[in-house]
UniProtKB/TrEMBL annotation:
It catalyses: an R-cob(III)alamin(out) + ATP + H2O = an R-cob(III)alamin(in) + ADP + phosphate + H(+). Residues 5-239 form the ABC transporter domain. It holds the Pfam family ABC_tran. This is Cobalamin import ATP-binding protein BtuD. It comes from Natronococcus pandeyae. Keywords: ATP-binding, Nucleotide-binding, Transport. GO terms for molecular function: ABC-type vitamin B12 transporter activity; ATP binding; ATP hydrolysis activity. Its EC number is 7.6.2.8. Required for corrinoid utilization. Probably part of the ABC transporter complex BtuCDF involved in cobalamin (vitamin B12) import. Probably responsible for energy coupling to the transport system. It is an enzyme of class 7 (translocase). Gene3D superfamilies: P-loop containing nucleotide triphosphate hydrolases. The complex is composed of two ATP-binding proteins (BtuD), two transmembrane proteins (BtuC) and a solute-binding protein (BtuF).
Length: 250
């Protein structure tokens, strides 16, 4: 089986501040992985390295079997960062326009055609925001914005979604509906890697967990993870180092 992402012996420091030590993990195509760990434990950094957005100091990263720095098929990757909406929220741009951006990588310099428009409509439909298509981004709730970015990734025909704390600031009901959407997309074959600070929530929905705190403490099925002491080990090492503050299950 081809792995969606392979990380081997990755080490990374910001200047002289070590963040990741010898991290290795392989994410299978079709996996739904929750990446957890204390604040400042390197989750966002690892996610960016996995997507080839940041270079490790040492070690190797592959995307769909290709070294990340040589991977050119960016339309396969949908990344929703914590700051995705910063730009569009202040510009007078509609939901449909943001989702349509997902088609440009395919169209190149050709104008978009009816088929592109149909794919955009379908993406809006799939994430349940067809009725918001003409609304400005600045008038959306946090959850609606996240759905818009996922629709943009679907419009670009991404088969890997990487989401960095997508439900921060989203109310409980919308958060549950959002996870239902992710489960649905995963069942249709999309690989999902998700950073989530709320361990109670994430373990309810994902299939596998990777627990990080500078080094990788565990990567296994959710049930096995809950039986293990990885969480305790990762978080107690954070307490010992005085670095972490963590939400669990609230
Ligand atoms: P997490 O996502 O687990 O909260 P991050 O990967 O964001 O962790 O950050 C890991 C550590 O690296 C933190 O101590 C953070 O302050 C530091 N850090 C993150 N980004 C930068 C940066 N651009 N420059 C310097 N230090 C950074």
């Amino acid at each position: 089986m081809t792995h969606a992402i392979t990380v081997e012996n990755v080490t990374f420091a910001y200047d002289d501040r070590p963040v990741l030590r010898d991290v290795s993990l392989a994410i299978e195509e079709g996996e739904f992985l929750g990446l957890i760990g204390p604040n400042g434990s390197g989750k966002t950094t690892l996610l960016k390295i996995m997507l080839g957005l940041q270079q490790p100091d040492s070690g190797r990263v592959e995307l769909f079997g290709t070294p990340a720095d040589a991977f050119t098929d960016g339309t396969r990757l949908g990344y929703v960062s914590q700051h995705s909406s910063d730009g569009e929220s202040t510009m007078p741009i509609s939901v449909r326009e943001v989702v349509t951006m997902g088609r440009y990588a395919h169209a190149g310099i050709s104008p978009l055609d009816d088929e592109d428009a149909a794919i955009v409509d379908d993406a809006l439909e799939q994430v349940g925001i067809a009725d918001l298509a003409d609304r400005r981004m600045s008038r959306l709730s946090g959850g609606q914005k996240q759905r818009t970015y996922i629709a943009r990734a679907l419009a670009s025909e991404a088969d890997l979604l990487a989401l960095d704390e997508p439900t921060v600031g989203v109310d409980t009901e919308s958060r549950d509906a959002f996870y239902d959407l992710l489960e649905d997309l995963n069942q249709r074959g999309i690989t999902i890697v998700l950073i989530e600070h709320d361990i109670g929530v994430v373990t309810e929905h994902v299939d596998t967990i990777a627990c990080l705190n500078g080094e990788l403490y565990e990567h296994c099925g959710t049930a096995e993870f809950l039986e293990s002491d990885a969480l305790e080990r990762a978080f107690s090492s954070a307490r010992a180092a005085g670095t972490a503050s963590v939400a669990s299950g609230d």
